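Quick note —
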Amino acid sequence: MENRLTTSSLIVRPSTPRYPVIIKNPTCNEVISNFRLGDHFFALGLATAFTSGYYYSTYLHKPSTIAWGVFLFPTMYVLSGQRVQQRLRGVSENKKDCAKYGVEFTENITPYNL
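Predicted structure written out below.
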């Protein structure tokens, strides 16, 4: 049996989100359905920029650029999905999502979440 006093911290920082929580634990379907046009542009824009940079830095080597793109495009969509999930959980600004779901938008400013 392990001793909790030696394995965990006694001081716990309260984690209150700065913005209203719309969905506490969003599922994949909820995250995908809340993608905005800007989230798609973010994913496609970064993936295109990185792939183009890789293409020109490898002196126009097409096979490795295709492999890089196959890896990078889904990765950027996962990153964009993380941004949507943070909005739904109230970690990042979610004024438009609050209006969509009918949740009152209030900003919670405490010393713990600045």
